[in-house]
């Protein structure tokens, strides 16, 4: 391998691991007693935080009176912009439900 070419990363397609300090700040801000967000998976917790920022109209407000806005802090924490929705999950394979034809009276 050439020295000027870098080796491909193993997790190149994976999302960035959240900044734990910023994530904890978001959890403190948007959960009641810390229990609501603590029990969620990482993807669900990120989505809950994203929606809470939009619902409370905070994207352009300063996060914790710091130098970053909520949108910038979210991007810094999760490595993706606030506008990006949840990752696409495969839909479970299920048979469509068929209803009997309706009768016209």
| Percentage beta strand | under 5%
**Mean pLDDT over the full residue set:** 74
Element-by-element helix/strand order: HHHH
Low-confidence stretches: 1-14
Q: Structural class from helices and strands?
A: mainly alpha
Main sheet record = none
Rounded to the nearest angstrom, the distance between the terminal CA atoms is 77 Å
Radius of gyration: 20 Å
**SS field, number of helical segments:** 4
Helical content stands at 25-40%
Number of strands: 0
The coarse silhouette is elongated
Keywords:
single chain, 105 residues, 4 helices, disordered N terminus
Description:
- By secondary structure, the chain is mainly α.
- The chain has a domain at 20-78.
- 36% of the residues lie in helices and 0% in strands.
- Helix 1 crosses helix 4 (70-78) and helix 3 (42-55) runs antiparallel to helix 4.
- It is elongated, with a radius of gyration of 20 Å.
Q: Gist?
A:
By secondary structure, this protein is mainly α. The chain has four helices and no strands.
Secondary structure blueprint with pairings:
Elements: H1 20-30, H2 35-38, H3 42-55, H4 70-78
Helix pairs in contact: 1-4, 3-4
């Amino acid at each position: 391998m050439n020295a000027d070419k870098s080796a491909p990363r193993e997790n190149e397609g994976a999302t960035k691991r959240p900044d734990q300090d910023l994530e904890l700040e978001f959890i403190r801000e948007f959960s009641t007693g810390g229990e609501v967000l603590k029990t969620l998976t990482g993807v669900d917790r990120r989505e809950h935080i994203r929606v809470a920022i939009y619902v409370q109209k905070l994207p352009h407000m300063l996060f914790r009176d710091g130098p970053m806005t909520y949108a910038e802090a979210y991007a810094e924490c999760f490595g993706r912009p606030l506008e990006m929705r949840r990752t696409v999950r495969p839909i479970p394979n299920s048979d469509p439900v068929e209803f009997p034809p309706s009768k016209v009276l």
